[in-house]
Write a structure and sequence with these properties.
The complex is a heterodimer of chains A (about 300) and B (about 300). Chain A is mainly α. Chain A has helices spanning about 1-10, 15-40, 45-65, 70-90, 95-120, 125-135, 140-160, 160-170, 170-175, 180-205, 210-225, 225-250, 265-280, 290-295. The relative contact order of chain A is 0.17. The model of chain A is unreliable at about 290-300 (pLDDT under 50). Chain B has a single domain (about 15-230), classed as Rossmann fold, CATH 3.40.50. The longest helix of chain B is centred in the middle third of the chain and has 17 residues, at about 185-205. Residues about 1-15 and about 275-300 of chain B have low confidence and may be disordered. Classes of the chains: A mainly alpha (about 300), B alpha/beta (about 300).
Chain lengths: ~300, ~300
Amino acid sequence: MNSILQSVFEPGFFASAPVRVALLAGGMAGLVSSVVGIFAVMRGQSYAGHALADISVTGGAASYLVGITPLWGFAGVGVAAAAAMDLIGVQRRRGRDLATGVVRGAALGLAALFLYWGTTSTSTTGATVTVLFGSIFTISTSTAAVAALLGALALGIVAGLYRPLLLSSASPELAFARGIPVRATGALCLVAIALAVSLSALTIGAILSTALLVGPAAAALRLTSKPGVAILWSVVIGLAATWLGVLLAYDSYYWPPAHQGWPVSFFVVAVVLFFYLLAQFARPAGTRRDKAAAGQAEAGG
Amino acid sequence: MADPGAVTTVQPNLAADREETLAVEDVSVRLGGRAVLHDVRFSIQAGEFVGLIGSNGAGKTTLLRVILGLQKPATGQVRIGGKAATRRNAGIGYVPQKIELDPDMPLRARDLVGLGLDGNRFGIPLPSSGRREMVEEMLDAVGAAAFADSRVGTLSGGEQQRVMIAHALISKPRLLLLDEPLANLDIRSEQEIVSLLARISKERRVAVLISAHEINPLLPVMDRVVYMAAGRAASGTTGEVVRPEVLTRLYGHHVDVVHLHGRVLVVAGQDDEPALGPRDDTHVLHTDPAPADSDNAGRR
């Protein structure tokens, strides 16, 4: 028994300080992304989440140049971009998609410039790898504390607006009729998405952050028809993915080819994909379709 | 308009009947220099089922927006339970037109009904047996108990409409507004929804105002009709309003009304046929409810 445990948790796993910080920060990113992700997916904003991730790369790269933790850049630029996306308005889908696409391209161009400067000034590719693919094992405790704070803010927004968000995600018209300020609710949700993305960008990288936002939520939507239970499923999958990812990455120091360890981001995304595919086998819950009742012959009169 | 209290009704609760749930008083609306509503006037009392009939562009949606407090009238006013119309009026339950619900959304019919009760509140709802019982009772009342645990997005049009009605009704409004609830329903669901709404209006003493293109599905159950054309409205019992001379004046050109097995067909007349009565732009039709000659007078 002990030997099995030892082969799962390679020596020194829990004793390692970077691992403990990684488990905490990764867990926070997984938790926040999976909760916020449910609303992002229900509202059809996974593209917005993807765009926010790309745009926040600029902030991460700029932070690296200035010499502060990329988290500030991810979160700052992400929230600013969320506000801008709301200002662009929601009137017409195509106009919004085009504007988002153009801004996203410009932001990535700026990020390329910053990363180039960062790379040439330090003569390493550290900046690029850190910003794009995350750096879960090199997070300082102070950065982890900021991450916890930003995560709590995002969770606070979603918990506080749970019912208005749920109703306006189901139907903006119904929410409006119920007196809910639909626009403001949507803007705050976008801010929560930006914060969730910034945490994931810090841990598994800006490029892969959408996987943690969309994947667990997409799997959870198939497993239940209850909104609260969907959030719980998403959290279970999100946490499992990040923690398993950290564990497997740690263990992979002992793996071929180079015995240098595989990146966490790879494992996290692989586990998310595994759960997503698994969920596709589940019969979608709550989709009762008894055609017999629907197509019943008309009663006389 | 005559004092509605003077009307002898078949309802026993006279005190409640006298109370006007909705009073639309000489409402005119101009949008972009065009008169969209022109001196519209009618009232609805508790427990009354009233159809708002008219084709596209007749002004039905604008009128509903005025009642909801979303559109300020140029002249006139709307009173709900005696108070001026405002946005976010808790006294109105509203079922908007053409709600599209995502079948992938994890939201059961009972969740949507519950959100009708407290969807505008902050925080996460704590499980409460009182809330659960209210939702259960509402689901039963609209005949939605059988599919209460299905995702709303996967339900049929008629089933979704029942859930919407429960969603709008659970906060106990005095006025229920429905914008084209019969659009895109098959004939059977159409009849079921109409008789459900009629039953609710009587049992719960809710004033129901339902907009529709077609008058016939509502004919058997309507207490009164508000017939709209080009921003003008004529109101009264169907017997009073759905007559060639009234509708001809409303439309401003010759209209025939054909009765066919208890249904009515409103058809445009020929140009060379004489119009029944001159058109007077300043005159707006209002026929007062007078049960003596009403075809609905004896109906329960």
